[in-house]
Amino acid sequence: MGSRQENLIFSQYLKQPTLFQDKDTLTANFIPSKIKHREQEIQQLSVTLAPALKGYTINNIFVYGTCGTGKTVCCKTVLQQLQDAAAANDKEIQTLYINCKMKRVADTEYRLFAQLIRLLGGWVPDTGLPTDVLYRRFFEMVDSTNKPLIIILDEIDTLINKIGDEFLYNLSRINIELKNTRITIIGITNNASFRDSLDQRVKSSLGEEEILFKPYNATQLHDILAERTLSGFGEGVVLDEAVGKCAALAAQEHGDARRALDLLRVAGEIAERMGDVNVTETHVDLAEEKINLERIVELIKSQPLHSQLVLHVIITQTEKQQDAQWTDRRILSGDIFHHYNTICTATNIKPLTQRRVSDLVAELDMLGVIATRVISKGRYGRTREISLSLSGPVREKTRKILVTKFG
DNA sequence: AGTCCACAGGAAGGGCAGGCGA
DNA sequence: TCGCCTGCCCTTCCTGTGGACT
Q: Does residue A196 register a pLDDT over 80?
């Protein structure tokens, strides 16, 4: 047996110096020791939760704010501090975290309670038991522990939109029957108007305390990024102009710190791949382009077959139009449906009706992939004028994916 | 002013898949 | 295991629309 062949790419990669010092600190999941610009919210949370240390009942909390405003990180941090404080005083507080957006984990009432029971150390089948049996089992497990239980239900609006708010009412009613302990619910949502849609009974039981997380402004984002830059890259690697650009771009997107961190991390990866020693504004621009590209590509890949077909027709028609320098540069819904039918026949796919295709066009418009407007051509009818919103590398990449699929 | 065109888009319901619950 | 329920995707049917044409 001869010696194994060495993979040059791997060995070169290992020798290559890295720009990163601790890449984990540049991810949204990382919990820093001190969370900046959220002092007020943390204090409000702590004040509400503190009575649990003395065994008093604590109010349910409703936390809301847009994406990337630190809601989850702050809740997890405060609960960890609460548990630490309880442990230091020979007490115990149990906390459970559930992300209700996780498919097949907590997206139905059954799955939610099954997951809660599993997190408490119990076991239930994936399906088959009546929901009231699960309630009873959950109730018994909680009551037998003699420890106060705090449950964080992240992205709670997703679950409520799916199954309604009855389960929240039931969950809050369990407290009345519990003899030895108490349950507190912290509901987290990105949707500020979601609370208004709740049943009055649920609103009064869940929304006893409300905490709003306002979006970060560009200065605060810059400050947060500067700190993470130091731990993530070390000193002098990322130029201040690059940090500023990440903060400004994220501030434009409703002060989303998660987005700012993604930009910074991807910019670092690009700089590293290019063999540069510093992360500059140019790398941030490239990172933004890359993130947008990946987002759109993922979005398009996740669309149903017929939606992809419609988009394919729109792209090919846009290109034909540009090549032929047509006098009438408009793409109309009637033309799209006609070409869509032609491709369906050629590829042996059963076409959808015009009504359904009209909805698919509207959906693509909503996703921002295309832009449409309803126009009237007088005697020649009413129609929708369609234009492609994708440009540059995003459009090229999308075209390639769809051409590979439909020819 | 009335007609007409080529759709937009709402409403209702069918078919199917997957989940729930006895 | 199987009937029931629910949600989703889709079709069918229908009314509405607005500017050009008569």
A: no
